[in-house]
Amino acid sequence: MSYSSRSRVLSYSEVARNLVAEEVQKDVGDACKALAKTMLDIMDQFECISKMVHSVDMLGLTVALRPRWDGLRRNFAELLWQFRTTAGNISGRLKMFSMTILPMVATRPDGEALQVLQSFMAICADHANFIRILVEHTMGLGSVLASFHTEFAKFTNIQTKMGQKELRDLSSKVHELDAIMRDLSTANGRLSNPDPTHLLYAVMRVGTASGRRPTRSKLSHQKLTLSGTVAQVGTIYESFDQKRNEVAHAVYSAQLCFGKGDKFSNTQTSLSTLVSDEIIHFESGLSLILGIWARLLADSTDIYQWLRNPSKNRVPAAVVDYKETGSSFYTTLSMALDVCVSGIDPSRFPKT
After folding, report:
1. Over the stretch 174-196, which tens digit does the pLDDT of each residue have?
2. Domain spans of the chain?
3. Which residue in 124, 198, 332, 346 has the most C-beta neighbors within 10 A?
4. pTM for the complete prediction?
């Protein structure tokens, strides 16, 4: 499949064709696999830093930091499991929509189809609450991690006298990145009927967090334009990407100042990398979930209104696309979430 290099807005059918294209599916699968692996790698980083913080505590220069850090480590593990569970639940909703709802309303748009859809939407309302809790948990942990990072940076400055300006700049930028991430998640969570391009944009951004570029489809979110009701979200995405690059540069600058380093600077460098990685990759994961969910609710609502009053409402785009192709891009979206779920090994988490 060929793609224009010009940034543009896509129609529903164009988004659908892109998402069901084999090369796009493979790129999305690879990106989600990399995202899941990175999230587990961050959990490993928490373990490593726990040992580093303990070695700093042994010097007796400040109040013990390891108990606080271990609390954050457990919090992250709980968040990652929550992300895994939520992704799996949403995948189940997508499967039902593509395998039951769409075929039914496409062939028999009657009262029975309406009842099935109403039941489906009622269950979706419960899942929406779980998504909200996931977003709040993510934003809360990111904020606490950014604050811990700032506190340790001040402590490192006192102990090493090196890179003081660079560390202040880095701490400031980490807080700014976290703030933009919260703005972005809030804005995505408020979308009720976004432009279809928003979905493809969110899906194709997944690989950006880990530095991956589409290798098969050559389709990237940079070639898409978010306009209309999602224009503000597009602006926040741009701000986030710019700040992410600034944080990466600030981390590198701080590392250069420390050189080979000691216990303080080595811990600081590892901590800076972890906090920025946590914010960046969970933004990617949340954007994927929120983008998918917003599209599912919009399509479900359109179909519901059409079934209630077919004479006054046009046949929904999701139904038209299914009738024309006999397939649904929700299958690709379900696959993407399943890859995230399978990539987060449950054996890594304590049994409850």
Report:
1. 999 999 999 999 999 999 899 99
2. 12-48+74-348
3. 198
4. 0.93
